[in-house]
Design a protein that fits this description.
Layout lengths: L3 E6 L6 H9 L3 E3 L2 E3 L3 E7 L8 H13 L3 E5 L6 H7 L3
Parallel strand pairs: 1-4, 4-5
Antiparallel strand pairs: 2-3
Length: 90
């Protein structure tokens, strides 16, 4: 069970900056799923916003959430019809 959390918000489809941040916080990349031995990540806000890396952001978030390494509280763009299909990956 996790007792410590890190919160990353408003990614807006940019994959590189969050990835660098996760490495700085000692998360290790385990085949696309970032893991930390004692912390869980919480994604808050908009994960995507019509930029080239949004699919990569969704794959990372979905993978981490799928194995229990992260939680996601998505932002307002998830309710936008243009973005709803991408968020259905969760």
């Amino acid at each position: 069970m996790f007792t410590n959390y890190n919160i990353v918000g408003e990614i807006h489809g940019h994959a590189e900056a969050p990835r660098r941040l996760l490495h700085k916080m000692d998360y290790r990349d385990d085949d696309g799923i970032f893991r930390h031995g004692s912390r869980r990540l919480i994604f808050v806000g908009d994960l995507i916003d019509r930029v080239p890396q949004q699919r990569e952001v969704l794959q990372t978030a979905k993978g981490m959430c799928g194995v229990g390494e992260a939680l996601a509280i998505v932002g307002t763009l998830a309710r936008d019809g243009a973005h709803a299909r991408e968020y259905s990956l969760f």
